[in-house]
Amino acid sequence: MIEYREFLYVAVTLCALAAVMSKNMLTSAISLAAMSVGVALILFDFNAPWAAVFELSVCAGLITVLFISAVSLLRKEEAFFAEDRTRFRLLPLFALIVAIGGWIAGWPFFEALADYARFGARGQSLGSMLWETRRMDLLGQIAILAAGVLVINSVFAVKKAEK
Q1: 152: how many CB neighbours lie within 10 A of its CB?
Q2: How far apart are CA 104 and CA 115, in angstroms?
Q3: Which of 50, 53, 56, 117 could form a disulfide with 40 if both were Cys (CB 3.0 to 4.6 A apart)?
Q4: CB contact at 8 A, 12 and 38
């Protein structure tokens, strides 16, 4: 049976590949944000709350808001520039080969990593750690992210009104 840690590792990897492979900049920014959320969950699970909070607020929050804002401003110019993506055609095959090799060769490493995560979390599950131990951190980060989104949206609404 697959553990939630293995699911997080796979989800982070898939989101990273989607961020690199996507032709749409908005999809890439959202995939990058989802990857950052997964990394923050892994860091919370490894009992590194400060690193997780930083990852969640700065990477998944602020940088994503700035990326999406920049993409929305540059959306009209994007249609004029066709990008040559032929160099990325073999990336899924390369990622599959690396994943299979990592699965075979890296399994003991990930088992040791999962044991470390259990030790660091003091036997708590990820859900209980987030919602019982770190509830205020999580809610504070969500509030800061929402405030940042509202500020950015209000700034761009004023810019559009000026045009």
Answers
A1: 16
A2: 18
A3: 56
A4: yes
Residue type, 162: E
Using alpha carbons, select from 132, 144, 111, 146 the residue that is nearest to residue 44. Answer: 132
In whole numbers, what is the pLDDT of the chain averaged over residues?
73
**pLDDT tens-digit readout, 87-122:** 667 777 777 787 777 777 766 766 666 655 554 555
Amino acid 104: pLDDT: 75
Whole-number Å distance between alpha carbons of 123 and 120: 8
Query: How far, in Å, CA of 68 to CA of 55, rounded?
Result: 18
pTM assigned to the model: 0.53
Nearest to 145 by CA among 36, 18, 24, 17: 36
Domains of the chain: 4-162 (1.20.120)
